[in-house]
Design brief:
Strand content: 5-15%
Low-confidence stretches: none
Bound molecules: phosphoenolpyruvate
Helix content: 40-55%
Order of helices and strands: EHEHEHEHHEHHEHEHEH
Mean pLDDT: 96
Number of strands: 8
């Protein structure tokens, strides 16, 4: 059976309260969607977003969480705190956090585990840099990144969502071809399949300059189950068009 598409908007560090009201109102007016739709907002706006999406079919999530339960971790936000507000999803291991905050594969895996402990669905990002791609290392890199998560989550592996995001495609306007993305997704699915008999139910998203005009060809690939959308999630009409693509 085909997996239901999932489209996740990653607002990154963008927006303001008034702008968010407008964006969410636009999105709600353009829905409902056949695909599952999630918006991941900056921490200070999550309570507003939760209120705005009450009773709607659009879910919301955070862009990161701590690997720790609680304690002296200034600036961090725990999975328990997110769960207390009704959060359902959290992105972990985004390449911007791996690059700018030196997050290791193991830290990303620990964050995914912390999320699951509080019934949040971790959206675990993996992806190669341009240098790694040019060195022919794509497969090795994504398998290494995913392997840390698989080993840490154990039997909980099927509860996560994986997002393949080639770093060279994020925010650059350079999208992976559907064929390239599909080949990596198939590889990731095989790796998940070796770890869990339930892997065929899991969703693997593609992210990296997905726009309204290229989403359908990406989402038509057999192992691409939706998208993680950055820039194009900031405009309601663009994001809604992506949510409708391929379903
Ligand atoms: C992202 O931030 O996860 C992303 C894919 O960004 P963009 O769609 O802007 O490339």
């Amino acid at each position: 059976m085909a997996r239901r598409k999932l489209v996740v908007g990653n607002w990154k560090m963008n927006g303001n309260r008034a702008g968010n009201v407008e964006l969410l109102a636009g999105l709600k007016a353009l829905g409902p969607f056949v695909a599952d739709v999630v918006v991941c907002a900056p921490f200070p706006y999550l309570a507003d977003v939760a209120l705005s999406l009450q009773g709607e079919s659009i879910a919301w999530g955070a862009q990161d969480c701590s690997a720790h339960e609680s304690g002296a971790y200034t600036g961090e936000v725990s999975a328990a705190m997110l769960a207390e507000f009704g959060c359902r999803y959290v992105i972990v291991g985004h390449s911007e956090r791996r690059a700018f905050h030196a997050e290791s594969d193991q830290l990303v895996a620990d964050k995914a585990k912390a999320a699951l402990a509080h019934r949040l669905t971790p959206i675990v990002c993996v992806g190669e840099t341009l240098a790694e791609r040019e060195a022919g290392q794509t497969d090795v890199v994504v398998k290494r990144q995913l392997s840390a998560v698989i080993h840490t989550l154990g039997h909980c592996v099927p509860q996560m969502v994986v997002a393949y995001e080639p770093v060279w495609a994020i925010g650059t306007g350079k999208t992976a071809t559907p064929e390239h993305a599909q080949a990596v997704h198939a590889l990731l699915l095989a790796q998940l399949g070796a770890a869990s008999p339930k892997a065929s139910d899991m969703r693997i998203l593609y992210g990296g300059s997905v726009k309204a005009d290229n989403a359908a060809s990406l989402f038509a690939q057999p192992d691409i189950d939706g998208g993680l959308i950055g820039g194009a999630s900031l405009k309601a009409a663009d994001f809604a068009a992506i949510c409708r693509a391929g379903v």
